[in-house]
Amino acid sequence: MSxxxxxxxxxxxxxxxxxxxxxxxxxxxxAYVAFYFAGIQGERQKRIEAFQELQAERxxxxxxxxxxxxxxxxxxxxxxxxxxx
Length: 85
Prior knowledge:
Elements: H1 3-12, H2 20-71, H3 74-82
């Protein structure tokens, strides 16, 4: 390949020899994907936190039932089971 061909090939394939929107297209796609996945992760994190709160409430209820059982207070165990805190 001649040096002139190498130069013209380098110029024609350079990123600066393209229309303006074409050079920004990969950046725009990358930004869209990043924001999309960030949104998904945010929603997922909210669901995980809500689940953990429910799990903590249930754990408190079970521990209260166990304490009441160890005290031998069957009436209190029944109240705790019917009306979680």
